């Protein structure tokens, strides 16, 4: 089979592994990386994650969200199965929606040191109101800092229609 | 449970509270804030509020709207249950659509002193015409003033399709 | 102008009337009727009413629904502006969703004595769950009783997709 | 050119005619027919007519609707350009929604003597409520009478979602 | 390669053939068949054909439609590339919409002698009105005759929303 | 406030209660009922529950589903907040999709002894395939047994389009 | 009732008035204004008007459109009921689509002297083609002139999908 | 963890197994079953399989389809991961669309001996036409034979809109 | 009838004309213009043309597309009925999709000498792939040249979802 | 037949060819070009390719994606049938999603030396997460390098809604 070879996948231990453990306490240590094969190019990778759930820090009630993560890799790239397990680890974690999104972005910056990254969470409503936090980041001292400012300035000029149904 | 702790939630009295009172006369005093844990970052929080109702100031007829509120917090952040109760307090308030949206934005600026905020109301039609006011604001003397101008200039270039059904 | 004449509209006092009063306490007395001009034919009339709001009987929190009312008239037909005012009169009324729908149908049966009627309410969620009650009725001792059974038996085999957004 | 020949189109005077006159007073005399070439087969023809407008008989305010007409022809079939002109002739006609639909069906029965016909109007809202009348008819003393009953009994078990936007 | 073998495809001359000729005059002789491998089972095959175009018999103006053909095969099945070429042969054919649909069904009955077949054309509007003819057929003296009646009786109880856009 | 009174709500302890406990181990004991005020009428109540999550019994991986529950009440009706808490209690429960749906229906039959009930779960895919179990039940020895058979026979003739995006 | 008071509504004579007259000859004199209460802020007001109809200047055939009007008010704001009556007055007016949109914008500029305004008409097709004119305007010698240029330059980069159905 | 236990999963060897082999030659031997825990109840299980691909038996060109499989289990139920691998095994299999669907249904009948089963494939177009075969089956000599007839007779009365985009 | 007068329509010979001839060989000579009444304003006119068909230059197979044409007029404006006839004249024309779009734009530039124009064709797939060419043009030596560059640079950042169904 | 002539199609050997071979091992040598007839104009060509499938490099499991390729041609243009065959050649190729998209873009740059190109892949989920890589390129030392930066900076500000169904 042509394509990326085994020895180009060092550090990837979870993908294809039988004994996968699904942690349910917040644990950024689960995250794994592999190497970017196209570091001379700026390009985007987006993860669509519609199966996110955490707990309300006040009431303990489960919250649900779809999370969209987009980033421009530098040297390291997050492996998607480890990302899945990391997001599952919020299952018993209590935090405000706004804090969860910032925390996820901080962890991925810490892990990959990406050129650019953004995280958008779209939660289901409680009491008729839903909350959608969005944060982004560009590597300090690079053009990606300006890109982050530009994308924040133009963020969500067209809010999607919401009717709670 | 990991995450934001109780002592980081001072001033939040309504969330999880049993004896919630649903006021039906306009009352901005209901609004409560908590502290932004990520003040060194510019990020957006959006509230989707499709259950807004007020009264026509001339005829007394109930009006209905979906309201979308987006802001970049500075130090204070509005707590969502108090926002819900505040919006419910328009239930017996009579005002033109345009005035309601400006009033809500003024109250939230007064409450949070945010870096940036915008409010978009999308009302149901009367006599075949519906009205959608949009206002925004950036903190005077900061880059957010320019961001507000930029977003107004690019507002709603793609009006959603409306057929009154 | 051709069409239905003024003298065929006796009893219709609210449509086109300037001093319309919007009552906010439940009042079936608002309802008005006019005469069916096609009584020798069975036909359906549907009202789409997406601006219904009432209160939770336990917490006082406002509830919101779209209500769909379909009926086959006999001699009397409900006038639509009076129906609008009647539905608005639930604005400060506290009742379970299931009870509201049954009450509306009972009032319209009392008013019009229709051959057949059905009422379907589709509410917005609270705590992640939404409730959609449906009731119907066929005039006792007529074929419409069987029609009511038939329509109940075939009710909502294809629930619409709900994701709370 | 193969297909239906000129001499099979007697009675069709409006289609392709330059001097078309657009009447704006209700006039069923505009309607024209041509001959059914497949009378030994029961089949449906549907007209989608989303550009219907008439006047409110009380207030004179314009009303708008999409009308769906379906029929099983017997000997005569209504020509579509004449149908368009007939529907346009309601432009200055004042009538209740329910009466317009019954009148259209009566005129088409008078014109074509069809085996079966149904007419469904879907109007835009006034005061937050919209009205959708539906009537149907099967030729007396034929199986189409039972078909009309069957279709009425199963009419609109799945009302489309309406939110007035 | 497993699956249907070459010798089970006698009579199929167009599929995979380089010198395909696209006729533009109505020609049912193009149609080819292959043998049904599951004759002991009643099952449906549907063709979705959204690229149909013919001419108006009066004005010569091109007409456009999506055609949906569903049938239950008996011994012979129509090969899809020959069906494509047959439908393309209406390109310069002038006929009323209702006649085109009946003609297509007649040709396919002649070709395949199917147990059941139905043809539904959905045309684009002229002058604000669009026409959707539907015809069907069940083999005489079999249960499929009753099936045809049943399907006609239940045809299109939910007309799709049309707004000419 | 008019409507259902406090003394008609005996047994409802969770709705409006501050100290709500969110159990995460399967527990049908959470469920509460209130009394049906319209027992002489057959009518439907539907719960839309798009926030269901459980665990795979083999791998421990979280599963996600939207669940639609429809029933015709007899004497008792399930209170919606208790239903929410009950469904949340599957959060750490491991079972096949098919078993979860049957278990939920069994518990609600045990709780309410309804005239009729059905439960439809629509899960997110694993490995490109998603599973949607549907079960129903009519009270033995009543017409609702036949209604259950009728609804099963007509279940899901129009599968919704799924593309895993 | 809190909100805008009667004495802040001088000049508004049509809203809530019983004897509304629906003119059917083009008449910009119908338009009324009220005073902007937030003149120190640039904000948008959009009117969705899906019930527009006029006549073809050549053939007299009725045309139908949805019109979207967005403006940034200066001192005066157009009252929505008078706008409705003004748009209804095109009912017997014959003009090309492009001319209607420019005329409406000219009349509203004359009436309100707004900071910015744009008008977009989306018509139904004739002969398979539909026409959507869009014009805009910024007050001469102000930044709104540049805003108009900017919005024209970025107009409709994503044409909506049209299939005439 | 509550729920189905390991010893109730005999015969399930693929789910959660690390060394999964993806066969690309048609192989029904991959399929595995587990035991139905609710054999006294008739209920449906549906598999949504939008990632099906096979080859054209004439040209070798890849074909793509979404397949929907619904069945009422008797004693055995097909395990979903083995179903995934089985469907993947068509990857290099050449067969007509109609034959693939019949073959899949035959294999599942052979495997599970279900009370009822149906298979619907919806393929992408070639040359502007797409093909959607549908077959079903009820166990001979049981009521499910009649259910199969009933469902075939009512199959796809509302073909989805297809425009090849 | 108010509005544009006959003497302002010189050169328009096809609109409303009875003897319309539908040419089927490419002929830009069909195109007609009328005079722009608002030459001091930059505004857009868009034509939605979903009924375009041409032939493949290699195989002769018919191709189908929706074409979107937007332009800013200078002195002359294309009359829409002549545009319809011009586009119909591609019916027997063989060309690559990319060449058709460029040719249409070239012809309209030649005809109208517009300030700005763009043409976007969206074709149906062949062999699973569809092609959508887009070209634009701004008058040389004017600001519209920069506008063309700007619009090309921002073209189609959000490709519509295509699944060939 | 007017349009592009045979001698303007040198190098195109696959289109219309009977003996098409469908390779299933990655092979960029399949790609063919033809000459751009409009080299003095910058314009876009987009290919919608919803039938892409490859293999996971770790597990061998098939992956599925829709790929959108947009480019501004210089001298050479890729012929679409050869593109189809090239994309089909990934059928047995194992690579990460991110690597496939970069590889496709590299091959097309090598083939055509385009002024600008971008490739966006949208994959189906595995374990609840889907991955959408996007890369682009502008010819070094030309304005298209800046265009590539601009388009990357503005990429996907509005992620489409994903719910894995
Ligand atoms: Ca910054
Ligand atoms: Ca929604
Ligand atoms: Ca709508
Ligand atoms: Ca009953
Ligand atoms: Ca939704
Ligand atoms: Ca709507
Ligand atoms: Ca018959
Ligand atoms: Ca439409
Ligand atoms: Ca049973
Ligand atoms: Ca989908
Ligand atoms: Ca200008
Ligand atoms: Ca459309
Ligand atoms: Ca489509
Ligand atoms: Ca240029
Ligand atoms: Ca599609
Ligand atoms: Ca989806």
From TrEMBL, chains A, B, C, D, E, F, G, H, I, J:
The keyword NADP applies. It is found in: Cytoplasm. InterPro entries: GTP-CH-I_C/QueF, NADPH_dep_7-cyano-7-deazaG_red, QueF, QueF_type1. GO terms for molecular function: preQ1 synthase activity. Its EC number is 1.7.1.13. Pfam families: QueF. Keywords: Cytoplasm, NADP, Oxidoreductase, Queuosine biosynthesis. SUPFAM superfamilies: Tetrahydrobiopterin biosynthesis enzymes-like. Substrate binds at residues 78-80, 97-98. PANTHER family: NADPH-DEPENDENT 7-CYANO-7-DEAZAGUANINE REDUCTASE. Belongs to the GTP cyclohydrolase I family. QueF type 1 subfamily. Catalyzes the NADPH-dependent reduction of 7-cyano-7-deazaguanine (preQ0) to 7-aminomethyl-7-deazaguanine (preQ1). This is NADPH-dependent 7-cyano-7-deazaguanine reductase. The gene is queF.
């Amino acid at each position: 089979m042509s394509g990326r070879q085994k020895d180009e996948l060092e550090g990837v231990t979870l993908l294809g592994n039988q004994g996968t453990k699904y942690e349910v306490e917040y644990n950024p240590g689960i995250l794994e990386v592999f190497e970017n094969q196209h570091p001379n190019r700026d390009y985007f990778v987006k993860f669509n994650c519609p199966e996110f759930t955490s707990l309300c820090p006040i009431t303990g009630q489960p919250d649900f969200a779809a999370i969209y993560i987009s980033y421009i890799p530098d040297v390291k790239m997050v492996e998607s199965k480890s990302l899945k397990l990391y997001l599952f680890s919020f299952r018993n974690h209590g935090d405000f929606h706004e804090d969860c999104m910032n925390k996820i972005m901080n962890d991925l910056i810490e892990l990959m040191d990406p050129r650019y990254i953004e995280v958008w969470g779209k939660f289901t409503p409680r009491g008729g109101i839903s909350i959608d936090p969005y944060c982004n980041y560009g590597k300090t001292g690079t053009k990606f800092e300006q890109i982050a400012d530009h994308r924040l300035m133009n963020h969500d000029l067209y809010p999607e229609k919401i009717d709670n149904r």
